[in-house]
Amino acid sequence: MKTLVAAVAPLALTLLVAGGCASGSEARRVITAPGAPAAIGPYSHAVEADDTLWVSGQVGIDPATGQMVPGGIEAETRQALKNLEAVLKAAGYSARDVVQAQVFLADMNDFAAMNAIYAEVFKSEPPARATVQVARLPKDARIEIACTAVRR
């Protein structure tokens, strides 16, 4: 029996790895959202693998102008969330599908204002979330929001 297991185990592992690689590469889809600002670096708006979508961080850039929206943390939070929703929509998801979010703030004193705007989008059964203060964000944004969504 020990010899049979030793002989079959490498074959089983090879099939498992080969099957996993083929499945993973066929199920991976890069998302580019026309309603979101162009990426400002070498990254995709989002990547979907199977039924999970990983959305890159979005800041308060107006996609029409390519500039940060004026008006402080409230305006930037609203725009970052609009940009996230545009990416989710382009991939066939919605805010209801978001299971986890990461919020990066340039100043933790903006937490209450951000939280009030965030609650407008995630009204009931909000996703799990982490919020941290960071030293600096791209384009000197005050906020960046990334998320993970799962298709229902």
Molecular structure report:
With 152 residues, the chain is α+β, with helices and mostly antiparallel strands. It has a single domain (28-150), classed as RutC-like (60s Ribosomal Protein L30, Chain: A). It is 37% helix and 24% strand. The protein has helices at residues 2-27, 72-90, 111-121, and strands at residues 28-31, 46-49, 52-58, 98-105, 128-133, 143-150. It has a 6-stranded mixed β-sheet. Helix 3 (111-121) links the parallel strand 4 and strand 5 (128-133). Helix 2 runs parallel beside helix 3. The longest helix is centred in the N-terminal third of the chain and has 26 residues, at 2-27. Residues 1-24 have low confidence and may be disordered.
Walk me through the topology.
Blueprint: H1 2-27, E1 28-31, E2 46-49, E3 52-58, H2 72-90, E4 98-105, H3 111-121, E5 128-133, E6 143-150
Helix pairs in contact: 2-3
